[in-house]
């Protein structure tokens, strides 16, 4: 019996109609990236594990897909009759892994090609990444990231540019969003303020879950990580601070009497000044509970939520000060943001925001009535294509009913017909499928009729 075909859990095949919609998202995102002067790069699907390990925190390391060494990968493993422990032998049987995100490979890339690129370096990258996560709705093991980064400049103008990019992309996609902004220095200032400067990572990981698990569970997790009741108590008014962005910043100014916190406040004031000048059409707010789990952020952090559709964040990023330092290129600061194509797709689909016709769909199909009609049609089919219109001819002289059904299934809006009579008169019959109307036109006027 033939084996039933399947694909690994957490991965997907994309049918043409889905791919056309995905490309609409990628093209929209890419066109904005280009307008802001960003250049494309690509990096390999797999990296050396030495590049990936230790960059994403303990959780991230567990989610790396490792690739077995070629050949006899067990030959260097000594067994001594003991049960094998995967953690002990992992390093001996696997040297490479699938990339977990695009940012760490980008840091490696910048370090390797520092002499060939101009700083500040502005790059965009749209490629798949892999995580050995438990698959669930909206969470896949293979998914595409659309990243844009500026590296080699400390200027907060870069953060402002990214906010502008978020504004343009979601305007073009017609998604109503809220951009939440915070700063890791403010979070470090808060940790110092509650007397737990050394517990910054534990605090950020816990409060990052506030939306998902609620305040009681967050406080319980903080207690579990060793924060005393007094420290947790001091944190509460900050998490539930009222007022708009400016009001929150001025309250923080009086509360956080430490250098790192004040620096974070100053950075955000500058950024929000820029935002005021840019007259954006999206809403932005300071959210002090925004922490973003990744350990490498050091300054501004961003997260974008769709307002009219319940789903996790659809875009996020932030400032990282020394990501290239781990690869031997110290003191190079960068800031970037990533757009989650899969979640954006779910939002567009859920809110019926995909345009009815996409640039990749066939607009015109010539029906096939036989050899002579085929030859008559080919010349005009090519004229239509030369005018930038996506067109095709049905390859077989099948029953007309079958050809029309094909046009219908493919949602092709215009059908062009040439039978014996049309050929004799040097004409075509053009049928507009949606409107259900048709007209007969002179063959030389076919292109302008279609364009109209």
What does this structure look like?
The chain is an alpha+beta fold and 452 residues long. The chain has two domains: 16-71 and 87-350, 2-Layer Sandwich (BirA Bifunctional Protein, domain 2); 364-451, 3-Layer(aba) Sandwich (Rossmann fold). It is built from 18 helices and 16 strands. It has helices at residues 16-35, 49-52, 57-62, 86-93, 103-112, 157-172, 184-193, 200-207, 210-213, 215-224, 229-239, 245-255, 259-278, 341-350, 371-386, 400-409, 420-424, 446-451, and strands spanning 39-40, 46-48, 66-68, 94-98, 121-130, 142-151, 177-183, 283-286, 300-306, 315-320, 334-340, 364-366, 391-393, 414-417, 427-432, 437-442. The longest helix is centred in the N-terminal third of the chain and has 20 residues, at 16-35. The mean pLDDT is 89.
The CATH architecture of the largest domain would be 2-Layer Sandwich
Number of strands: 16
What general outline do the C-alpha atoms trace? globular
Terminal residue distance: 55 Å
CATH class categorisation of the largest domain: Alpha Beta
- What is the number of independent domains? 2
Low-confidence stretches: none
Q: Could you please say which CATH topology of the largest domain applies here? A: BirA Bifunctional Protein, domain 2
How much of the sequence lies in strands comes to: 15-25%
- Fraction of residues in helix: 40-55%
What's the helix count? 18
Quickly list its features:
alpha+beta; 2 domains; 5-stranded mixed beta sheet; 18 helices; BirA Bifunctional Protein, domain 2; globular; 8-stranded mixed beta sheet; 452 residues
